[in-house]
Amino acid sequence: MSSIAVGPLSLPVAQVLMIVAFAVALFAGAVAGRREQVSVGGPLTDILLWSLVCARIGFVVLYFDHYRDDPLGIIDIRDGGFHLVSGLIGCVAVTAWQLWRHPALRQALGIAVTVGVLVWALPFGLIKLMQVQGQGIPDLTVESREGSERPLASLADGRPMVVNLWASWCPPCVREMPVLEDAQESHGDIAFVFVNQGEGTPTINSFLDEHDLTLRNVVLDRRREVASNTGSQGLPTTLFYNASGQLVTVHHGELSSATLADNLSEFETDKGDNNQ
């Protein structure tokens, strides 16, 4: 499962893990600080927030060309653009600052941060490993807008494939469509497939006309079998499969040109690993 339904919301597993890890870290810090009668809640929150800020800054710097003409996009974190290494560096730096600044909190805060990082990192690494190992393109049939059926995997035609799960009622899906349309035109070596979830041909055609979209490989998944098979609880979800048909990464939520470029770079990494 790549996302978890929480009431009406669907959250990526990574976000759920971060929330759980922060809650566990607060508890561990409270227990460790009870004897010293100190509270680590404030410093721990600062560490989390600054880690996220550093992760965002690192991502924006890495893909600044994509934000050059859209400065407001820098603070629009709906695209999920965060750089893991930058975030970890920020976490270490801010933790060191807090430990130096608050000597009385060193033991409790050190325990809290260590526990929080472990609770997040170990499951996150395991889930990522399980997510991309042995998961191929679902052995499912999708329907064209003309009514013919064909296997989803056949749409790749030997190329890496980007499978976008979407619906016309989904605002983030609407916002990311122009980005995917541009990518489909500029990356002819990659198959982009737009798998509509649960809607009919008239609704899809009306949507494409309304938003003046020219997309290839728009197919129907009336029973939402692709979403169910891949454990994708929310829309939009975009899955990236290499030329061998194996899943290399998943993006939950809206894609910007920067986060799409970041995910497409996984194809190059995967190609390099296979050539070794």
TrEMBL record:
Pfam families: LGT, Redoxin
Major location category of this protein: other
Domain of life: Bacteria
UniProt keyword annotations, A-Z: Cytochrome c-type biogenesis, Disulfide bond, Membrane, Redox-active center, Transmembrane, Transmembrane helix
GO biological-process terms attached to the record: cytochrome complex assembly; lipoprotein biosynthetic process
InterPro entries the record matches: Lgt, Redoxin, Thioredoxin-like_sf, Thioredoxin_CS, Thioredoxin_domain, Thioredoxin_ResA/DsbE_sf
Entry's localization field: Cell envelope
Stretches assigned to the Thioredoxin domain: 131-269
Residues that span the membrane, as ranges: 12-32, 44-64, 84-100, 107-127
MF terms (GO), sorted A to Z: disulfide oxidoreductase activity; phosphatidylglycerol-prolipoprotein diacylglyceryl transferase activity
Cellular component annotations (GO), alphabetically ordered: cell envelope; plasma membrane
Official protein name in the record: Redoxin family protein
Species whose genome carries this gene: Vreelandella halophila
